[in-house]
Design a protein that fits this description.
single chain; 125 residues; alpha+beta; 7-stranded antiparallel beta sheet; 1 helix
Length: 125
């Protein structure tokens, strides 16, 4: 669970960084940002049902993002890996990313779909 939280915080920093760039480009317009987290907190490293939501209202429109922990994969190509789904929608379109990763954070896969363009990759340290 700590790795999921760390990974979510890294994404949050990235998303906020992007939002800050958009805020600076909006000539001082006010931007309203809302972040919400929830989870069952059973102490499991891959806690099914835990989620994180982000919403920002900007001059160019509303941006929403959400991480949802789907839990451990029991069989198939991703067996033994934690599955987290990231979705976002905004003025530039939508994106969906499926992350599959090991408890030690040393390896995993991702499948990304951005406005109909798909990318898949395996990663390891």
């Amino acid at each position: 669970m700590k790795k999921i939280i760390l990974f979510s915080l890294i994404l949050l920093i990235f998303v906020i960084g992007c939002a800050e760039e958009q805020m600076e480009a909006s000539s001082g317009e006010d931007v309203e940002v809302e972040i919400e987290t929830s989870g069952i907190n059973t102490g499991e490293w891959c806690e099914k049902g835990a989620e994180w939501k982000y919403a920002a209202e900007m001059e160019t429109g509303t941006t929403n993002a959400k991480w949802t922990n789907e839990g451990m994969i029991e069989s198939g190509k991703y067996a033994g890996l934690c599955h987290v789904i990231y979705t976002s929608t905004g003025p530039e379109g939508s994106a969906k990313m499926d992350y599959y990763f090991s408890e030690d954070g040393e390896s995993g896969y991702f499948e990304l779909d951005v406005n109909g363009q798909k990318i898949a990759s395996e990663w390891s340290k």
